[in-house]
Amino acid sequence: MDDPLLIKDLARTERPRERLLAEGPEALSNAELLAILLRTGTKGRSALHVAQAVLVRTRTLEGLARSSVSDLCTVPGIGRDKAVTLQAALCLARRVAREVQAEAPLLDTPERVADLLREENRCLEVERFQVVLVNTRRRLLRVERLATGTLDTLLVHPREVFRAAIAANAAAVILVHNHPSGDPTPSEADLRVTRDLIRAGQVLKIEVLDHIILGRRVTERPCDYVSLRELGYFYS
Which fold has domain 110-227? Predict the structure, then answer.
């Protein structure tokens, strides 16, 4: 009786695992990726041959994803364990797709930035300087909390601001800090820091989109934040 053909029985250049390591997963065909999951073949058939048979039976990856364990077990060379492995891998792929589809918040207006950070800054008794990192579509990558104190005494250095942006591959940044007094009117220190960071961003080609100062609503001031861009301190 012939021994089952294994992936290791293929020429080295034909082994899916070897190709993945050498060329990356995108270089492999669907059948080769499935063969890696299947690991071993069956009598007279390599894992790659079995994977090809699976794709012939299901026609598409969507058809494969819809196949039950019992459906997969009708393919020669696919037993329960291999069918379960394929279903587990496909379920993980669906979960990845759902995560990608759940897009991060769109931060294309000062109001949306304020809505994102208002609650966590509302009760602070000192100023906190934060940098909101966004991609080219103005969607949130992450928020970096850089310093706490006051902008008169804090060392808000461009190096720290843009190191975070470069590490996150951010297209642009939005500066945010709070005024514990509740009055979001910018101080001279606020304006000075903003100008310095705009100039640094221009050198690094990472745009500073805005500087939002968070305060509190009062009767005579219904808006609890100001946008330095809207106030005219930014120039296109």
Answer: Cytidine Deaminase; domain 2 (3.40.140)
